[in-house]
Amino acid sequence: MTYKAISNPLWKIKDEFSHLSLPKHVSFHGAMPSPKEAYEVIHKPSMEINDRGRITYSNYFYGKILQTMEEAQAIAEKLNN
């Protein structure tokens, strides 16, 4: 298996719309959120895991969610060695 730190885009609700009953986060790879003006694109660290050509993604390693790209890169280096 090989591990690669990536920046994963997602839609996050803007603060001025947070009082509405809308999802706080929406996948960037699905349908566009509605209303679009209530959301902004943010990037979160994630890990691409390649197992003999099968690709999966995770942001959870060693009992916690990845917080920074530096942390994701350090874990990828550790797991690839």
Write the layout of secondary structure elements.
Layout: E1 2-13, E2 25-27, E3 39-51, E4 54-58, E5 60-61, E6 64-65, H1 69-80
Antiparallel strand pairs: 1-2, 1-3, 3-4, 5-6
Care to describe what's here?
- With 81 residues, the protein is mainly beta.
- It has one helix and six strands.
- It has one helix at residues 69-80, and strands at residues 2-13, 25-27, 39-51, 54-58, 60-61, 64-65.
- It has a four-stranded antiparallel β-sheet. Strands 5-6 form a two-stranded antiparallel sheet.
- β5 and β6 form a beta hairpin.
- The termini are close together.
Features of this protein?
single chain, 81 residues, mainly beta, two-stranded antiparallel sheet, 1 helix
Question: What does this entry show, briefly?
Answer:
By secondary structure, the protein is mainly β.
Could you estimate the helical fraction of the residues in percent?
Answer: 10-25%
Widest sheet, order of strands: 2-1-3-4
Uncertain residue ranges: none
Q: How many angstroms separate the termini?
A: 11 Å
Please give the radius of gyration in angstroms. 15 Å
Strand percentage, roughly? over 45%
Task: Name the shape in a single word.
Answer: elongated
Structure summary, number of beta strands: 6
The arrangement of helices and strands along the chain is EEEEEEH
The number of helical runs is: 1
